[in-house]
Fold each of these.
Amino acid sequence: MKIRLASAALALVVAGCAQTPPQPTVSAAAMPVPANVPAWQQGRTPDQAASPLAPHAARNIAVPATEIPVRNLRVPPGFRVELWASGMPGVRAMSRAGNGRIYAGTRGIGRVYEITDNGRERTSRVLVDRLTQPAVTYHNGSLYVASIDKVLRYEGIDANPNVQPTDLTARFALPPEQHHNWKYIAFGPDGKLYVPFGAPCNICLPGDAYAQIRRYNADGTGMEVVARGVRNTQGFTWHPVTREMWFTDHGRDWMGDDSPEDELNRMTRAGEDFGFPYCHANGVADRDIRRDRPCGGVTLPVATMGPHAAAMGVHFYTGTMFPAEYRNVLLVARKGSWNRTKKFGYDVVAVRTDANGRNPQVTPFVTGFLDTATDSFWGRPVYMLQMPDGSLLLSDEQMGAIYRISYGG
């Protein structure tokens, strides 16, 4: 596989405070979600009422290692993928602490796992349970856990893994809606904590508290909205050279098998509008929420990631284990579609652009979770974590497993 470096000499992202953009006049109803309709059905037309499409059930049980067909996974020549840890239902985004322990959040199961590697095997325990869709990140000796209605900080967790958390919830002023409000959190190069607040619907006017990315000081003070028009981002990172934020965003449902596609966005300044609910993907006007010039003033994506692909975690590879042509290349995990007649995604892809972030090329990196012949899947890749030796961990929410991707040897 030939890969070109993604590099640029561009300005530092989110250099200043974002301002709320003016709201245009809307010519359609706000489409509130009916109380008796499941959130995922909102936005269906009458002729779609009989559709068999529905979100795939999570496999929130501990799956034995012998039942995980890692042998089916395919990676480019010279790479190797192996089962690294299992038995963690719903495992999602991971963060590595200073002592080498790895912490991972979940969604529906509400747990945070602590994973320990003794050099021979990996064991896990539940650090905290019964949270509402928690995510984690490690920063300056503390583990941060953010759920829809709670923010906890475990100070000094390296030295004391049983430390009791500090509750920071009141400082974050969290809005209560659950749909698309599940979390992914990370600290940026500016030392700020970035938190998404997805749209509380499939398609609607989201209000002032949703469809945005915010940043906070580490203690929860100093909130700023740095991006609007973001329907549902479940992964972001910063370019290792330009320090610009790149993030995925899920397209709306019930506009057909092939539209709108998910997005890969690049934020070059604070306050940009990424289109929701009026404009999707590469300039697709919404059919239900309309305005004049729906994509006017909107920052369009660097690349579209495929229809209903559920693009999740993103990672710029910075290690030395992989071949040099992978340096600073963006890897994107696509969890896989449900709102599509024929399934799409269920893989990890590499995205390369030119020096200005244009002319994207999307190529396979990890495949084999989806059997296209039978249109069935067994795993759903979601997030990546680079290890000190340059290998890459990849979490699989469906199997409750983590795979290790290495090169050579």
Amino acid sequence: MAGSTAPEKMTPQHPAVEPEASIVSRGALLAWLFLIVYASLYPFTGWQHVGLPLQAYLFAGMPRYWTGFDATINVLGYIPLGILAVYALHPRIRNVAAMLLALLLGIVVSGTMETLQTFLPNRVASNLDFLTNSLGALVGAVIGSRSSHLVLERSRLRHVRHRWFTAEASRGLIILALWPLAQIYPQGYLFGNGQILPILSEWLSAWLDIPIDLGDLLRSGVQLSAEQYWLAETVITACQVAGALLALHCMLRDKAPRWLLPGAWLLAALAVKTLASALLFKPQNAFAWVTAGAMGGLLLGIALSTMLARLRPPLQRRCAAALLVIALLAVNLAPPNPYFVATLETWVQGKFLNFNGAAQFLSLLWPFGALWFLLHATHRTKRK
């Protein structure tokens, strides 16, 4: 027919690009599920069955005592779950089907958490929490469905991700994005993540019914002087900063801003630490982390990462893993910082109890997640 044009055909020079599944979204969904579980069941002690049916909370009257703050937190906490669930299903399942599956996931997770809370004497299962959590999952599912094609297929961020980061970086991006958030929970030493011996000591003490301090046993009762506390913080801070920055360096391509990104990432972690100190304690304690040991460790860590960043990526990964292991050993062998303990006495958790549980979860496990990524088999897979 005159004036009509033939449909445009794809040529070898312009092949059709098939949408890909997002490993980042699936990993982020798994991480968010872990955070929800930890925040919902924290502090994981005092489990007992009180004799009530597990579903009794669903048919009970609405709670008499609740606040707008709690309801808002419940909604906001499940919105990312709905968004990430839709993203994780893309491109295999989309639109209404993805929304319904994301909503179903939110309902199942929320119902399971509320049911398990009936076994915890310091937690209260609530049908209002169940409804607000489900509402958050629904809102997130709608947002995810409306934005999945933009974020996962035509997003500027997707282009930047492929231009700046290596193909193996998906898992690492999730873990490294959590590093600043891992600084929210109060720590005795700057970047003192991974201090698991006190938690293990509490569990063993409760199990054996006798007080046990694993850290004190490993130190053989040795006490540190003020100068040794300063040195311990320097070593802990320097090793974790250098290890974290090297982990980021080994994921960067040549076209990436190789010095701007690590610098901005470190500043973000320090900014989160400062804000958390001001909110959890008092505004005048915002910069309580600025000590001689912390500043010395920061400078030493930046210098170490700058020198080691010139190595080839496989060597960077090994050095980063070694530095994080040293930081883990140091933070678990060092005794509690008496100056930090004095500051901690002013901490009133209040409404942030559940949030602090999730923050502690991140603080404890972040170094182990980083080591898992650095030693993952995908780094040894040759790609064409």
Amino acid sequence: MSAAICLLAYGFAMAVLAPPLLRRLTESEAAPRFALAAWLSAIGSTALSWLAALVALIVDIAHHRLVSMQRPVMDTCMTELHDAAVGRYGGAEQAGLLILAGLSGVAGLFVIARLGRALWYARRTTFTHARMARIAGRHNGALDAVVLDVDEPAAYCVAGKQHTVVVTRGVLTALDDHHLDAVLAHERAHLSGRHHLLLALSRGLATVLPHVNLFTTGANEIARLLEMIADDAAARVHGRRTVLHALLTLSDISDGPTEALGATGIGLTSRVRRLADPTNTSTRRRSRLTLGAATVTAALTSVAALALAVVGLALCLPISG
């Protein structure tokens, strides 16, 4: 049980400390890929530690209910809590701890089930929208996109069995060929990078655990960083100024449903600013080094916590055998 407690403590510490630190490290917006990796590492290590704590809790309950009490157990700095759990201090204390552990396990399984349901719903919604867009619109071979006969300018992409880039007739009217190509490149960068999977997972965690700041803030930051990454991908082919002008042209419109990824849907102000005034090489290099170190630290810390939990130590030192 000490392993589960230590893993939970690590997860809560990461959930509290990571958001303000990562916001400070990513405020320059110089290295969105590295910033994305840092956020994903923090979110992943937190979720993994809580999942491992749940597994450790279930295994511990099963061990002490099904295995003979005569079997020796490694003592740790949580020895007294462990002794209470195996009934050494009386049946009432043991029952209370086991009930608490059981309820925690049920709550954890409930959260996992809700997350699975949220991911399934997001997948079904995007697949349905992609199919309906192909039915309602007409495929333009030259653009490799589905064109909807709608006057309002909109451009977005949706994932499905067949990924789909959707533009409206209004976009074709509003943008010249160069700007349209930049917008299409932006959308294809989302699809080729499988950004919809990262969005679905981060938004699913934020929906299931809305009071955990790491998940809610992380979902917003991940969405914003993915747009910057797609901007950079388009800019490498068509130039920053072309992408910037395309964004400004479409900046006053809503470009698609909430489950879609659109060129002007998220963080437009900061994206326009970084395209208009890109950071210098030294700032980008410094941001990459700092964020890379943060990513590696979060990953290695979570691996170390899991390894210590496996051998029964977690973050505590053994007292006796």
